[in-house]
Amino acid sequence: MNDAAHSSKGRSGSIAVGIALLLLMYVAAALAEFVAPYDYREQVRLEPSAPATTLRFIDATGAFHLRPFVYQSHLTNSREYEYTEDPSEAYPLSLFVKGSNYRLLGLFDTDVHLFGVAGGRGDTAPFLHLLGTDQLGRDRFSRLVLASRFSLLISPAGTLLACLLGVLIGAVSGYAGSRADAMLIAVTDTVIALPTLILILAARAAFPLELPPSRAAAMLISIFALTGWAEMARLTRAQVVSVKNLEFVSAARALGARESRILSAHILPNIAGPLLVQATLILPAFFLAEVSLSFLGVGLQEPEPSLGNMLSSAADLTQLGYHPVLLLAPAVVIFVFVLATRLLTRGRR
């Protein structure tokens, strides 16, 4: 009894942590322009490949400040990207500062950002670069928050469509039997046998290389749905076959229930558990597929940020030598997302 209770608490804890991580990521992505201190396209030409801004509580005189502050940094060696701080004046951090204009949730025009340097920026106050800047002087943290939104939108939408299509095909195949089953399962096995990433790349090649974000999102969602439904269909068919002749289904049939009613109201609810687990396995796979496409240069294109094209900067060994941790920050986002979905999967199991 104690072991069972402990196991149940462990599963509940895994689900709670997974949901909390995903909720945090999606809230940050939905409010990306508010969370990001700067416009992701804004270039600070005087601060290329800058290191992360150091948050301080003790100033140059040794005095302690409850409020974190930063110093102005200046590029002193453009060849080695070395920066030197000017400790002559401290600039405190503030919440809800004014900055670049944007539309919050696509509905409201505002210029308020979650945090920033008090008193302005640029000539009057330093920029706050939590993850430094790229070679064009664009704030990496702002780009990372916006990049996460694209991936967090594409993968769930593609997973939802692929699962709906797979459940529909698998349920019809498993319940109908005979020729329909043989034909549908042959198509399913053919799709499973194809290498998914190669198939996605081939489908992507049919579209123009440069697409606006909305069309790129629609294209990727469609590709993921059309290439990712087969495993869900195979699982659904197997589950339907295992329960379609059980007593509760026979009883519903004897009472005159329509076949569509039996399938939707009696069979599918009883096999939902394994299907949900499969969906949580497909979700990170699509997430990684989108990142891979962007990394290979066939996903979302510059200047729009994506986790893949931000990670591709790490392929430059010169840049990687200057700021290895900062360049690999997108990998942390990927790790957290995959971890959260795995925690959900463990809890469901």
Written account of the structure:
The chain is 58% helix and 14% strand. It is of the alpha+beta class. The protein folds into two domains: 32-138, no CATH class; 144-348, MetI-like fold (Orthogonal Bundle). Strands 1-2-3-4 form a four-stranded antiparallel β-sheet. The longest helix is centred in the middle third of the chain and has 37 residues, at 140-176. It starts with a helix and ends with a helix. The mean pLDDT is 83.
The percentage helix is 55-70%
What count of structural domains? 2
Mean pLDDT: 83
Q: Tell how many strands the DSSP assignment holds.
A: 4
Estimate what percentage of residues fall within beta strands: 5-15%
What's the CATH H-level superfamily name of the largest domain?
MetI-like
Task: From the 3D structure, determine the CATH topology of the largest domain.
Answer: MetI-like fold
Quickly describe the structure.
The protein is of the alpha+beta class and 349 residues long.
Features:
alpha+beta, four-stranded antiparallel β-sheet, MetI-like fold, 349 residues, 58% helix, single chain
